[in-house]
Amino acid sequence: PDKADSDRLEEAWRKWGQNCDVSGRLTWPEIQRLVCGSTARDGEVLIRMFPGWGGNEFRFGVQVLECDYLDENLNEDLKDGGRITMGVEKDEFDRVRAYYLATRTSPSTAAEVYQFGSRNYMRVPASEIVHPFETMRPQQTRGVTWLHTAIRRLNMLNALEEATLVNQRISA
Q1: Residue 133: helix, strand or coil by DSSP?
Q2: Of 6, 49, 79, 133, which has the maximum CB count within 10 A?
Q3: At residue 111, does pLDDT exceed 60?
Q4: How far apart are CA 160 and CA 152, in angstroms?
Q5: What is the pTM of this model?
Q6: What values do phi and psi take at 43, rounded to 5?
Q7: In 3D, which of 58, 66, 65 has the Cα closest to residue 20?
Q8: Per DSSP, what are the bridge partners of residue 61?
Q9: pLDDT confidence of residue 47
Q10: CA-CA distances (angstroms) from residue 164 to 24, 80, 168, 169?
Q11: Contacts of residue 59, Cβ cutoff 8 Å, sequence gap at least 6
Q12: In which region does residue 74 sit, left (phi positive, over 0), alpha (psi from -120 to 50) or beta (all else)?
C-alpha cells in the first residue's frame, strides 16, 4: 500500500463525512447511528444518494428518509409483468426497479409525477436508494421491526395485568 495515497484517501473520507448529509445536519457517524437505530426500531430505513450534489467538493451527498414515505397501500400490477408492492416497484424477477416516495406537493417535473388515488408520488430509481432491512422471507419487500415478537408479548402482559386488576376490583 502507498502510505501517501492512503493518508489522502482517509483525509478525504473524513472531510466528506463532515458534510455528506444534504440537509447539512448530520455527519457520517451520526448517519450510521441513525440508520442502525431506525432499522432496529422500524425494521427498515431509506437512504437516498445524490451523485452530482453541489453541497460539498466531492459532489456526492446522502439523505436518510423515514420509510413512511413508502405507502404500504400503493399496490398495482404493471403492464410489463412487474408490479408495485407497498410503494416498491419490482420487475417480474422481483428485482427492485424504483421506489415511489409520497410527496406533499406535485414533484417538480411531469416525468416524476405518479398519481395513485388522491396521492402524489415521486418515482425514484432503485440505483439512488439504499433500503436496508433484514430479509426473513422470500420475495419480502419491506422490513419488519426487530421488536415485533416483544411487542406481542408486551400486549399480552398488558391484557393480563388489566384482567388481574378487574378481577381484584370485583373481588373487593
Answers
A1: coil
A2: 133
A3: no
A4: 12
A5: 0.78
A6: 90, -10
A7: 58
A8: 50
A9: 98
A10: 51, 57, 6, 9
A11: 51, 52, 53
A12: beta
Q: Which three cell numbers stand for residue 119?
A: 396521492
Name the helix (H) or strand (E) containing 157. helix 148-171
Q: Which of 4-13, 103-112, 149-158 has the lowest mean pLDDT?
A: 103-112
pLDDT at 31 over 70: yes
In the block, cell 428518509 appears at 65
Please answer whether residues 71 and 84 qualify as being in contact, where contact means their C-beta atoms are separated by less than 8 angstroms: no
In the Cβ-directed half-sphere of 55, how many Cα atoms lie within 13 Å? 18
133, three cell numbers: 432491512
**CA proximity to 63, closest of 104, 108, 124, 135:** 124
Pairing of strands 46-51, 76-77: unpaired
